[in-house]
Specification:
Blueprint: H1 2-29, H2 37-52, H3 58-79, H4 87-105
Length: about 110
């Protein structure tokens, strides 16, 4: 259950970050409205706040978060960009998740 809760929190964190970066990209690259910057700023504030909810040391959280971010970005590629992930995208995501699990779930002395 702890792993599921951890993955959910990391997943929400990644969605907030990707959204906060994607909206300005739409504005700059796709001639989107400058109003996209408002929800982008909110999403990035949410991202930062969600990072503070992780119980581990900040450096460990950032390192492990990167693994989940890779998987969420591949999912974004498929759902938002409409590009089907390749086998290598999926394998890379699985390796990144394995790295996250090793970092976050390794036994540690208090």
């Amino acid at each position: 259950m702890a792993l599921l809760k951890l993955l959910l929190l990391f997943g929400l964190t990644a969605l907030a970050e990707i959204t906060g970066c994607y909206l300005p990209w739409l504005w700059l690259k796709q001639q989107g409205s400058a109003y996209l910057l408002v929800p982008a700023a909110f999403a990035l504030l949410l991202f930062v706040w969600l990072l503070t909810l992780h119980p581990a040391a900040a450096g460990r959280v950032y390192a492990a978060y990167g693994g989940v971010y890779v998987v969420v970005a591949v999912f974004w590629l498929w759902v938002v960009d409409g590009v089907r992930p390749s086998l290598y995208d999926l394998l890379g995501g699985m390796l990144a998740l394995a790295g996250m699990a090793i970092i976050m779930l390794a036994p540690r002395q208090s």
